[in-house]
Amino acid sequence: MNRLRKHVVATVALSLASAPLTVAPPATAAVVANVAISAATASNGTTTLSYRATVTRAGTLRYVLVSIPPGSGGRITSVNGAVRTVSPGVLQWRPARTLTVAVGARFSIPFYGVLLPSGGPWTLSFRAIGTTGAALSAGTGTLIRPANVRITASNPIPAQRSTLTYAGTVGRPGVLAFVRMKLPTGVRGTLTSVNGTLTLASGYATWRPRSQLSVRGGDRLAIPIYGAVLSKYGGIFRLGMTATASTGLQLMAGTGSLALIAPPAPMPTILAGSFPVRPAGCPTAWPTTVAENAKPGTGAWVIPTTMNGPLAAYLTKVSATCGATVDLKVTSGRPVSVVAYRIGYYQGLGGREVWRRDGVPTVVQPAPTIGGTANGHPLRMASAANWSKTLTIPIDRNWIPGTYLIKVSDGRYAAYAPLTVRDDTGRKHSLLIQQATTTWEAYNWYGGRSFYSSATTGSGRLTFDRPYAEGQGSGQFLPLEQGLILWAESMGLDVTYWTDNDLDVYGGQLAARAGTIFLPGHDEYYSLRMRASISQAIKRGVNVASFGANASYRRITFTDSTRRYWDVDRYTAGGNSTLWRYLGDAYASQPLLGAEYGCGISAASLRTGSTWLFRGIPAGTVVPGFLAGEVDYLWPGLYKHPGLGILGGGSAICRTTGRSTPMHVTVFVAPSGARVFNGSTFTYGCFLVRRCPSNLGMPAQSVASRRVVTTMVTNVTSWVSRGTITVPGGAAAPELRIAVPNHEVAIAEK
């Protein structure tokens, strides 16, 4: 048959707007009607009957006659034509337009709203009549009643004990031999039933009646299974149910859906405790963000890539407050200058010098150690705790609360040591921005080990007693987090700062410290106190915006009150036991923040929509590379907050599977009134400064893209804060006046 013939032979698929093409058989082959009739149960309890038949004579169709089971009722309708009853049990369907069919084409006509009588199966007829009165197709088919399987659980919560009930409709009569039912994955316990015996094998339960049981078409079988202990991992399961006669004939077959969704896990109460005592000489109030950023800035904080080298440094505290001291440890062997820069906007220069010491002597420190054991497991921890102190830095009233980079330079090489200075005065700020210090440490390979070194060599304990290898010593601060800080300070917002470590220490005070908290681009590693603090804060009305993805994904345990070390369980079940979700679906990220980690991706574009997230941005605007690093999406099998919405999203290729994965930006409002935003990609902060990590495979960020993302961040801030944070109207997207190196950021193949 030639190509032209293939394109003119059309299938009459009347339930579709445009039908697929069907190739007619050669003229020498006999064409039969091959009538097939199927049924599907609709959500309102009625049945849709679908009649399919092959055209055996070409012509123009006048109408189709079909028989339905005697005693059927209901308000019966169809599509693309009119349907009426011409005699008891016979329907006529007449096309709404002229329809010419070729031999070999396939009719497909649905009839909706049928109420089937009891009994079955039925032999039903199909007859298509042409305008000449000739039959274009005619034959009979067998209709078997749909099984209409329904599966329910008395307690549909993962990790709970429940009674599972499988119910299905018999399609044909017979003597029942057994019913076979697929169990949800991971079900355990001593399973029993009634009026029969129950056996288990390969994830199936088979029920056999104790005495002979004859069934008719239309009978409803309902088999309860008692004592089922559900797995801690739930989801939406498609489970099969079949009934077989003593002759081996199948009396019923179908599948049903069972949703086992875990609500958010209960979290312990985190007590607020008291604020640290204010030391003498420390102020009771600090300058506003506007006043602070009006001070002269400098671009001298930037370390050019030509100064990358063996010099490295770290601080003995992740964060500090006024009145504290922090020790600095440096490896160089040459005199160094130590300069502390507060990171902000500062006329677009990005930093202000706060403190310095020049000519500080240093030594070449010993190599970091690798080792340690706990509970019989090798920790493989890289530590520079064996380094000697280089300098003690006093944190006095000149250190305005904020994020700091301590720049250490010997004239040839330079490196940063990051520090966050908290506001511990007890004043409540509009906004608190968190630094993801535990995640920086997990990816830190300084000394030759990180959590991600490999499955067999990766660390089971991480320490802050070593420099960061990423970001010239800044960790993931410069690649992913600086942009959000520069934006907030350029807009003059009432903002304060702390770290993951502080969330663990002071998490109970979150509601007293800020009305809204921003989580950064990659805030993955959470202790129980950290997770409980965020959960508790939401319940107490604190708004949360996660400007990232993969948040609160892995579970850690700080080893002592100093929070200088934390453990992760990579021993029980490899990478799986490091996840919060290993404890069960109730501990996934989605029940906490609204969406769940998908995978690491190859960069893809965002196309803006018409939701409030994109207010002020033309719909359909493309932001190249905005989906990058890692992404989250709304998993259908995990807890979905009531009223949760998807504001935007897209899709990208997962690096580990090569398949497309979705990305969803989600929002919900908690019963407390707290608003929660989950941004679901790494790139909000880096787009704000047009300096996204160079290894994420994305194109250079344009001025236009920066403006789009700035508008999005502004819209999120207004929404999530419930209007309590006002971003100056018409404020231009901030831009640094200086060149900053484009840093890579480690992304694991999770």
> What structural category do the secondary elements indicate?
mainly beta
Strand fraction band?
Answer: 35-45%
* Arithmetic mean pLDDT: 94
What general form does the structure show?
elongated
* Largest beta-sheet details: 9 strands, mixed
Low-confidence segments, ≥5 residues, pLDDT <50? 1-28
Helix percent reads 10-25%
What is the radius of gyration computed over CA atoms, rounded to a whole number of angstroms?
34 Å
- Order the strands across the largest sheet as they lie in space: 32-30-33-35-43-42-41-39-40
Q: How many DSSP H or I helices? A: 10
What distance lies between the first and last C-alpha atoms, to the nearest angstrom? Answer: 52 Å
Structure description:
The chain has 750 residues and is mostly beta strands. The protein is 11% helix and 38% strand. Strands 32-30-33-35-43-42-41-39-40 form a 9-stranded mixed beta sheet, with helices on both faces. Strand 37 (557-558) and strand 38 (565-567) form a beta hairpin. The radius of gyration is 34 Å and the shape is elongated. The two termini are 52 Å apart. Residues 1-28 have low confidence and may be disordered.
